[in-house]
Design brief:
Length: 156
C-alpha cells in the first residue's frame, strides 16, 4: 500500500468517525408526542433523590412518585422540557439530572473521553510507525541476501 493510499484511508476513517459522532450527538430532535410520553422522557433523565442512580420513572420511592407527579403537572400546564428540568435543578440542585450538563466543568465529562481516545490513537499510531521503521532498518545485509535468495528460489 502506498503512502498516499494509507493517508487516504486514515482521512476516510477520521471522516467516518466524525460523521458518526455528529449523527449520534444530533439524536432524536422530534421528541415524544403525548404529554405522558414527554413526562416519561423527562423522568428518564431525572435521578430519584432517595435511590442510588435510579431514574424517577424506574423507582417506586415516595420521593420519585412525587417528582413524577410534578413533572406530569408541569407538562400538562404547557411547560417545556427545559423549563421542567430548570425547576427541578432549582429545587434539588444539578445532581438531580442523570445526564451531566454539557457546559462548564460538567462539559469535561463529554470532552475528556473523546480527547483521551484521540490522544491514545495518536500515540499508538506514532508507536506503530516507529516500530515499523525500526524493524525495517534493523535488517542486516545478510538478512537481505537471505530474502533475495529465497525470492529467487520461489521464482525458479
Amino acid at each position: 500500500m502506498t503512502r498516499a493510499a494509507r493517508r487516504a484511508a486514515w482521512v476516510l476513517l477520521a471522516a467516518v468517525v466524525a460523521g458518526a459522532l455528529v449523527i449520534a450527538s444530533a439524536g432524536d430532535r422530534g421528541g415524544p408526542a403525548t404529554a405522558q410520553a414527554r413526562a416519561d422522557a423527562i423522568g428518564d433523565g431525572v435521578r430519584c433523590p432517595t435511590c442510588r442512580g435510579q431514574a424517577v420513572t424506574d423507582s417506586a420511592a415516595p420521593a420519585a412518585t412525587a417528582i413524577r407527579e410534578e413533572i406530569e403537572r408541569r407538562i400538562r400546564a404547557g411547560q417545556s422540557e427545559a423549563q421542567v428540568e430548570s425547576y427541578l435543578v432549582g429545587r434539588y440542585g444539578e445532581d438531580i439530572l442523570l445526564t451531566p450538563p454539557s457546559r462548564g466543568v460538567g462539559g469535561l465529562v463529554w470532552v475528556l473521553p473523546v480527547l483521551g481516545l484521540g490522544i491514545a490513537g495518536g500515540v499508538l499510531g506514532i508507536a506503530l510507525r516507529r516500530w515499523s521503521r525500526r524493524t525495517l532498518a534493523s535488517a542486516t545485509e545478510a538478512d537481505r541476501a537471505l530474502v533475495e535468495r529465497a525470492s529467487r528460489m520461489e521464482r525458479a
